[in-house]
């Protein structure tokens, strides 16, 4: 893959950092809310619909800030880059479901179980979960972790930092924090390194978004096929 020059931020409106932070912060706030609500005797079945609300809020915020995402203004991934993104995404998926030793995770997660009381899958919940994980979360997270934080660690003027110029310090810190965000922290670090490498090598945030989406989409299909809800 050839490293492309990064789009100039000259036309970006003020507030480009909040545009990448706020959707991610909202997403994390919903995770915190989901941890607190069971203390109020709200059933796990009711909490499953909280994911739909979380995705809806993130989508609304991404739409509100859409004009500030200069790195996503045009889809710049060609066939070869798309093949690389798909390969990275599938590799991360395979590693994700295998890097699950006890020391590689924070406790035990119950995950997201879309089945109803009779044991049948509620496809409304399942499809919302897959769509959110494969289409919304990759855009939101890549805007925060790769577009913003990875480059901001190099310079506060992060939009002027070419992905290929990111150093090992920023790469390591971002991958570590990305791992800590996930219950499978070790797999998270590996995924963070993979997506960052793809971003830095290709110069395209869309490539990282594609890889992330492939990973999450493949994981969702695998979870539904095998019933390993704790991976969700």
Kindly summarize this structure in a few lines.
This protein is mainly alpha-helical. 61% of the residues lie in helices and 0% in strands.
Fraction of residues in helices? 55-70%
Give the low-pLDDT segments: 2-14
Radius of gyration: 18 Å
Q: Could you describe the largest sheet, including whether it forms a barrel?
A: none
Number of folding domains? Answer: 1
The helix-strand sequence is HHHHHHHH
Helix run count: 8
| Secondary structure category | mainly alpha
How many strands in all?
0
User: Beta-strand level of the residues, as a percent range?
Assistant: under 5%
In whole angstroms, the N-to-C terminal distance is 32 Å
Q: Globular, elongated, flat, extended or rod-shaped: what is the shape?
A: globular
Q: Please, what is the average pLDDT?
A: 91
Walk me through what this model shows.
The protein has 232 residues and is mainly alpha-helical. It has one domain (9-231). The chain has 8 helices and no strands. It has helices spanning 16-36, 44-47, 50-64, 79-96, 123-152, 168-180, 185-202, 205-226. α6 (168-180) runs antiparallel to α7 (185-202) and α7 (185-202) runs antiparallel to α8 (205-226). The longest helix has 30 residues, at 123-152. The protein is globular, with a radius of gyration of 18 Å. 35% of the residues are buried. The model is unreliable at 2-14 (pLDDT under 50).
């Amino acid at each position: 893959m050839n490293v492309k020059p990064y789009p100039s931020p000259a036309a970006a409106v003020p507030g480009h950092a909040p545009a990448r932070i706020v959707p991610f912060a909202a997403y994390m706030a919903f995770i915190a809310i989901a941890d607190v609500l069971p203390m109020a005797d709200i059933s796990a079945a009711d909490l499953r619909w909280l994911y739909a609300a979380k995705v809806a809020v993130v989508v609304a915020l991404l739409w509100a800030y859409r004009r500030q995402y200069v790195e996503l203004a045009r889809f710049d991934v060609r066939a070869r880059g798309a093949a690389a993104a798909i390969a990275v995404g599938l590799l991360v998926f395979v590693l994700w479901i295998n890097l699950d030793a006890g020391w590689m995770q924070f406790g035990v997660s119950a995950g997201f179980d879309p089945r109803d009381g009779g044991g049948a899958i509620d496809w409304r919940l399942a499809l919302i979960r897959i769509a959110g994980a494969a289409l919304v979360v990759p855009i939101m997270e890549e805007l925060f972790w790769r577009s913003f934080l990875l480059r901001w660690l190099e310079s506060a003027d992060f939009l002027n930092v070419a992905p290929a110029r990111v150093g090992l310090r920023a790469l390591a810190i971002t991958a570590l924090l990305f791992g800590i965000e996930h219950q499978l922290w070790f797999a998270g670090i590996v995924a963070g390194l993979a997506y960052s490498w793809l971003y830095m090598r290709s110069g395209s945030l869309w490539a990282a978004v594609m890889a992330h989406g492939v990973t999450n989409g493949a994981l969702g299909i695998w979870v539904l096929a095998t019933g390993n809800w704790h991976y969700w």
